[in-house]
Amino acid sequence: MKKALGVLMILVILGSGVLFAAGQKESGLIKVGIVNLPPEESGYRQANVEDMNNVFSVANGYDAKQTNTLDNSEQIAAAKGYIRDGVDYLLISAANASGWDDTLKSAKDAGIQVILFDRAIDTNESNYQAAILSDMAYEGEKAVEWVLSLGLDKINLILIRGQMGSAAEIGRSAAVLDAAKAGKLNIVADGTGGDSWSLEEARKVVEAAIAAGKDFNVIYAQNDGMAQGAVQALQAAGISHGKGGKVKIIGFDFNRFALRNVQAGYWDADMQCNPRQAAEISKWIKSGKMPSGVVYQEELLLTTETISDELIAKWGINADPGKGVITR
Amino acid sequence: MPKLIKHFSHLVLPVSVMTLLIIINLIKGADYFRITMVNGAFYGNIPNILFGASELVILSIGMTLVTAASRGQDISIGVSATITSAVFVQYVLQAGEVTLLTIVVGFLLSCVIGLLLGAFNGTLVSVFKVQPMVASLILFTGGRSIAFMIDGKLSPILANDISNQIGTVIPGVPIQTPIILTVVFIALVAVLFKTTNLRLYVETVGINPNAARLNGINPKKIIFLTFLIMGICTAVAGFIAVNKAGRHDSVNLLKLIMMDAILAVAIGGNSLIGGKFSITGAIIGAYTIEMLNRTLLRLEIEPATIKVFKAVFIIILMVLSSPVVRVFMKKALDRFRSWRLSISQPKENALSTTNIAEKKEE
């Protein structure tokens, strides 16, 4: 009985092996291996992963596989697996910027074109074909440009930073710090939402500034959640904000709830951080015009004047609370 | 009076830590305790602290019990609260029209989920004898992904009026709702301990499970029960947190709060290896941590170094108020007193000898 079972199991394993092999026929699809972070990392990543899945689909002529992990060594193992599978293109958003040299070189030797998206890797530029990134410094500059264009007599700004030392925090802070150094604006409070870009921490930063009797008229929060926390603090203290209010609010990332708040005049502006690189990459692949080196994406800043339903639907990320709904 | 002092002796540590912080804050600015009315609600540093610490206080109560009975910590509390609140949000969102009943039913549902999560951890710890930190590591690692799935891979918005009032103030009530909910929860816990022998059982199990078993107390049941209570605590904390935030962010909601909760238990004068415990201490500890966080902001410490300052502050506070320093201070005080005595006495002696000498001369 046991022997018969054993034989049966071997047969099943062999049979499934044959089926599996049959499934790997040449199909004329472009083979793409995507190494990415997991969607539960953030709203940004969720939109990013979904976008990758939509664009690199069979319907669009791709045979794509995606690996999502926060662990750099798992990512490298996955990339090596794709290289062995002989993919045509390898797309990478690295969990850690270092440790990729050997993997990238072996991809190059195998004739695979490597495209980095969203996150850069510390390596020689010759090791990859192209990189499509968000320029955090550009985002910061654009946001500060908006702050300076508000026409306020004197800009007293509360800076709420994200995770200290992260690329987004450094880029988005740099423009503010430069402007402060040049005397264009005055930073009255400098705080951080901590490693989790925390709403509660941001709220505390603003509450502390209010308790200290500071006079401020701009809040520059480096993501939407922290901008929300800052506004909660203003609400509790009875300080007006948004369109026609005393304090101007700007957030980052283009969450749909944030854009709805801007639309309703509850906040003043939001700066985009675009997670949708897939369409651009697909365009490169399909047209055969592959750029080399780093390419930065165009990104938008929307204010109460320039915002529209179409833009919210097209560029926003995460759940949409619906028109006119304010997220307090 | 001495009896009263002895009764509250376990509170010396948390109260002295809090007093130190208050002194620092008063030095920075004398208006620390000022309270004003804004839009019909109290506003000021103290209401802000009470408001900000509500989830931490509730979780610290559960953490104290778990620590006392199981001699270990539950590190999955923030994640559990994220899952329970995800269920709450989904229930409210699918209801369409949001009434008070929807909120209450959603809350009760999230309590059931909290009990299930507590039972999961509790079973691992009590039946399978897995160490609490390892057992709760499972939920800690995988829980946020579960919440992410419940959320439908998005962060849903909770924009109805009732949720907003629970997260801020109810019109006509001068105190912010999270503060009221916290007080009600503390009162319920107090009633629970007044009316049952839970304290005795938990302490007995924590001090010596075998002795407890020989005396007819089933340690497994008691440890399991503390995890169930923890489950309720996470559900309540999740409920408050998500209503405060107005949307459910499965990634960041109550992230790393277990560290502060464990710290609150320790500042509260509780041993982290179980046994006798003080919930009052843990509650004061939780408010102290919130006060510390805000003190650092009040002192305008640079964001890059604020975490370092927090760590240094905690070490200084703990050392200054530790029993060792207390004993040392007492000894020093005694020595000072005897030194003063010894100064005043020799003077009298010297005086008398000179008197004698003078007399002799005479």
List the helices and strands and how they pair.
The complex is a heterodimer of chains A (328) and B (362).
Chain A: H1 2-23, E1 30-36, H2 43-55, E2 62-68, H3 72-85, E3 89-92, H4 101-109, E4 113-118, E5 130-133, H5 136-148, E6 156-161, H6 167-181, E7 186-192, H7 199-211, E8 218-221, H8 224-237, E9 248-252, H9 256-263, E10 269-271, H10 278-287, E11 293-296, E12 301-303, H11 309-315
Parallel strand pairs in A: 1-2, 1-3, 3-4, 4-5, 5-11, 6-7, 6-8, 8-9, 9-10
Antiparallel strand pairs in A: 10-12
Helix pairs in contact in A: 5-6, 7-8
Chain B: H1 2-7, H2 12-28, E1 35-38, E2 41-44, H3 45-52, H4 54-70, H5 77-94, H6 100-126, H7 132-150, H8 161-167, H9 177-195, H10 198-207, H11 209-214, H12 219-245, H13 257-267, H14 279-298, H15 306-320, H16 323-361
Antiparallel strand pairs in B: 1-2
Helix pairs in contact in B: 2-14, 4-9, 4-10, 4-12, 4-13, 4-14, 5-6, 5-7, 5-12, 6-7, 6-12, 8-12, 10-12, 13-14, 14-15
Gross CATH architecture of the largest domain in chain B: Orthogonal Bundle
Terminal CA distance of chain B reads: 56 Å
- Structural category of chain A is alpha/beta
**What count of structural domains of chain A?**
2
Write the H/E string of chain A, N to C: HEHEHEHEEHEHEHEHEHEHEEH
Count of DSSP H/I helices of chain B: 16
Shape of chain B: globular
Name the average pLDDT of chain B.
90
CATH topology category name of the largest domain in chain B: ABC transporter involved in vitamin B12 uptake, BtuC
